[in-house]
Amino acid sequence: MIEIEHLTKRYGALAAVDDVSLTVERGQIAALVGTSGSGKTTLLRMINRLVEPTSGRVRIDGTDTAALPPHLLRRRIGYAIQGHGLFPHRTVAQNIATVPRLLGWDRARIAARVDELLELFQLPPAEFRDRMPHQLSGGQQQRVGVARALAARPDLLLMDEPFGALDPVIRAQAQTDLRRIQRELGTTLVIVTHDMAEAITLGDRIAVMEQGRLLQYAPPREILTAPATPFVARLIGRDERPFHLLSLTCVADLIQPGEAEGPPLAPGASLRDALSLCLWTGRAALPVEGGGVVTLEALRRAAEGRSP
């Protein structure tokens, strides 16, 4: 658990972060979202003391981070940044092994952990462990960067715009992979993004910041249906809100008895995907694998925030 209490960072008269308090429960993903200069990156970096707070405190599992030497604190916390930050002169395996080596792990344990993570990120070890970073695609480099951040099995992972440099297709896959891996490992994750769609896709809770202040901290559905301020509403986007709402729910939650023509949808597909297919094909209902249908009318009600 991360407890942030009245955290403030001032640079002269400017408050980059102004009296922010929030709690991230163990195993959750918290997304910090806001425009450039909102203070989200400064807040993230105060968690691992890359930036020292002016006042307030951070507790991780009850321990005040100010009581720990910064270098020891950071070895307990994974950190991944935009553009991966890999060491260009080290192989993939050597990059992933960085923190375990600092912690004194033996060679066999490090080698096993490197291969375990490469398998987890769907990068076959025999093919990738000895490659240099320049021999990887952008998406592969980013996956190795996240694997390195997870190498020492940290309970907490901080990510600062990790997918900002990726193209939309690779970015969407990277988000899906991250969510899957986070659920498998149970890692607590705090991610900074300027993209509300990414925050909604990944976050169990979203913290919306502006000019150093925390405007709202709530689950994605609450952010979408009850924005706390006009700024939060603008950040969501009026035209995008129905599609964001549909992306939060799976087809399995909207199945009704009935039959329909066409290839069946997977129950785990999002309602956003189902609506897109209905509109593209001109159909009023779609079949679902295992039986039943999802109807266009039910999708419209869900997009309005109403029950089916």
TrEMBL record:
Keyword terms: ATP-binding, Nucleotide-binding, Transport
GO annotation (BP), single: quaternary ammonium group transport
All copies of domain ABC transporter, residue ranges: 2-236
A UniProt-annotated Pfam family: ABC_tran
InterPro entries per the UniProt record, alphabetical: AAA+_ATPase, ABC_transporter-like_ATP-bd, ABC_transporter-like_CS, P-loop_NTPase
SUPFAM superfamilies: P-loop containing nucleoside triphosphate hydrolases
Keyword ATP-binding: yes
Transmembrane among keywords: no
SMART domains per record: AAA
Gene Ontology terms for molecular function: ATP binding; ATP hydrolysis activity
PROSITE patterns (alphabetical): ABC_TRANSPORTER_1, ABC_TRANSPORTER_2
Family according to the record: Belongs to the ABC transporter superfamily.
Listed name of the protein: Osmoprotectant transport system ATP-binding protein
Organism: Paracoccus chinensis
